[in-house]
Amino acid sequence: MHYFIGSLGHFLIIAAFVSALVSAYGYFRSVQSTEIADKDSWMRFARIAFWVHGGSALGVVATLFTIINRGYFEYHYAYSHSSTVLPVYYQISAFWEGQEGSFLLWIFWNAILGFVLIRTNKFWEAPVMAIFAIVQGFLLSMILGVVLFNLKIGSSPFILLRDAMDAPIFKTSPDFIPEDGSGLNPLLQNYWMVIHPPTLFLGFATTLIPFAYCIAGLWLGKFKEWIRPALPWSLFSAVVLGVGILMGGYWAYETLNFGGYWNWDPVENAVYVPWLVLIAAIHTMIAFKKSTTALKSAIILAVSAFLLIVYSTFLTRSGILGDSSVHSFTDLGLSGQLLVYLLAFVLGTLFLIIRSWKKLESDEQEVSTYSREFWIFMGATVLCLMGFQVIIPTSIPVWNALVGLVGIDSNMAPPVDQVEYYTQYQLWGGVLIALLSGTGQFFWWNKMDKTKLKDALLLPIVLTLAITAAIIILFKVQNITYILVLTAGTYSIIANAKILLDRWKTNINLSGGAISHIGIAMMLLGVLFSSGYSKIVSLNQTGLVWSKEFPDEVNQKNLLLFQNEDRQMGEYSLNYKGTRKRIEGFPSYVNIHDINQINETQAIAAVDLSSDEEVVFHQGDTLTLITPETSYFEIAYTKGETSFDLYPTVQINEKMNMTVFSPDIKRKLGFDLYTHVRTFPDPDQETDWSETEIITTQLDEPFFVNDFVATLEKVQRVTELDGLTLGEGDVAIKADIRVKGSDRDYLAEPYYIIKNNQAGLLSDIIHDLGVKLTITEIDPKSNSFKIGVNKTQKDWVILEAVEKPMINILWIGTLVMVIGFIIAITRRYGEFVKMKAKGLE
Hints:
Blueprint: H1 3-32, H2 36-69, H3 76-81, H4 88-95, H5 99-120, H6 125-141, E1 146-148, E2 151-153, H7 161-164, H8 169-172, H9 192-220, H10 227-255, H11 266-290, H12 295-317, H13 335-356, H14 372-394, H15 396-405, H16 418-445, H17 450-475, H18 480-506, H19 512-532, E3 535-536, H20 552-557, E4 559-562, E5 566-569, E6 572-581, E7 590-591, E8 595-597, E9 602-605, E10 609-611, E11 614-617, E12 622-624, E13 630-639, E14 642-646, E15 649-653, E16 658-662, E17 664-667, E18 671-679, E19 693-697, E20 702-705, E21 708-718, E22 731-740, E23 745-748, E24 751-755, E25 758-762, E26 764-766, E27 771-779, E28 784-791, E29 796-805, H21 807-837
Antiparallel strand pairs: 1-2, 3-29, 4-29, 5-6, 6-7, 6-13, 8-9, 9-12, 10-11, 13-14, 13-15, 15-16, 17-18, 18-29, 19-28, 20-21, 21-22, 22-23, 22-24, 24-25, 26-27, 27-28
Helix pairs in contact: 1-2, 1-6, 2-4, 2-5, 5-6, 5-9, 6-9, 9-10, 9-12, 10-11, 10-21, 11-12, 11-14, 12-13, 14-16, 16-18, 16-19, 17-18, 18-19, 19-21
């Protein structure tokens, strides 16, 4: 038992928790002190405490990963989320699969950001870091794992398995340690799950910075000064959180088999809404820098973005969503603690805002429709309305729970078809944002009146109408809603491109907003075409029903492929080549029947394994499987002179009783060909062979086996046979039967054995062709042989293939948006540094 490392981890959690509270107290005293000496003394004390806190938090991270990496399965967390077969990069995913690990990831990023803030902004350090340390204390309380007066505080990642599970084995053998863990959820065994959660949680952590600056400003009475240092961090938070969300979408696109990248799952919604509010906050903060308007809006939106992140944490980790989300965590009994966390920050923030409200600047003049502020307010309003439209239905389980506390039985339910429900409203929000982002840029950079506005908009509108008309004709766009989305997206790109060209002539550092708007408009168009004009190309046009047990959708929209049989699918000819595995040291996929698996992670080569006509592994070599849970279905596509292979997968985790199908994607310039397997034969099902057909043949005489040409090439006596000891009077005859498949030759080696004056038959199976060959009789007089042939249904898969047009516009738009944000961050941070150098920050 490895008790020490768990005790060390638990000690470091307590140390991090206590030092966070001590640091918060020290920074609070520094803010409240009036004497410079006392202020500096408390600041140094608090700073040291935060460094101790950060070091302890990093130590917890290192300790937990060591437990996972070394397979200490006596610990519940390692047993529940890892196994001996996981490679290191999936062990990283296992680290944050559970609630405790994901909280720890959030704590880690907050600590790193705290170090950065201590180094970069001395003026705001005390109030901002006091907020940071308080938040860290709350987060660390979620993984404390202590019980005070029968009250459970947090769930420790270092709890022993015997303390977490009430299993009989621990009563008889308390020191029992499982040889292996349950493994990682197959859905998370994807490289995107190594980088998506850290990016998303960095986004979560960065929303705390503008929140902390805003609260610090309200606390100190510096109601407007907080905006300058908070703005570059807000931009950074928006781009990181946005990229994290889109990484999750791309993971869903590559891993899940619903054929899309966004499913309006409650957990997706709970992260999407804070991002919308954060974008709205950024625009109001920028508006305030240009005039005295929007300060109150900037404060409300800046704090709301972080509070919504806390609310999303409550939604996803309290268990309140139940089965309405595939992403939510199970309840660890911490829902009450999460609710206290949420209410504490909401009420504390409300107190500061209400106390300061009358002191906040506001513009008494009515905002003109020709002012930049009007268009920014319009955009922020639309973004907030889009957020409300999503968060209210998503929160229905919360409402049901609240009214249930007072004895009211609520029958409200989330939307049945959530994709259709949310999309029908969010699409119109996207149209309004595209129009506002295109038009508002002209007001932002120029003073406008009616005449100037007409002149400015004439060229973008004419180009928009011309390009949209061409696209409508070329792609036969007939849906009115799609035409409006297309027009709005095209207009936003053209209008912002005009602004971009003007900025390049003066100062490229001013182009961040226009570039970001172009990227978002491209994303809107990418969503329109890839989702609105997604086309299923695997339609069943045979008139056959694959199985009465399948839903109509599967029978109508999927193809049945038998192994090594060509089937036409529109312009493509498909051929299912069989099931494949990946092994270490081999550059391509290996036929599953060319290896014999001997345990969970290893196999023996049944034949020589070659690549580019060079033998890489010889028959009998021991092989190590890569992700042994995963099997690959090789599908050969041919279209004219072009051919390629796709390898959709299935992951089977018997310990978790999970079977997960994932697609493979052929990426082309104009569209993606998205292919996934819907079902396949049960590998554990016993093979049903036909009656034996006897064929009499001689050496080198062709005969037919299941419509394939076969030849008996050689018959020879052997003196050794694996698994059987031959005596002096025993005889073993091996036949070499070559069968010509559609794209390769197969060699069957059946045996005819005489042992102790009794005949024995050892058949050989060619799985790819669905045949079993047996030497049933040898006639020395006529030099003839009787071959027994048994047939079975060949291996098969049912496949769905979808073309998703113009989806690359979505991904390119994401990249363009990020570039725009980076330019904006660089500019705003430069402004902050200049003011800091002057001693004003």
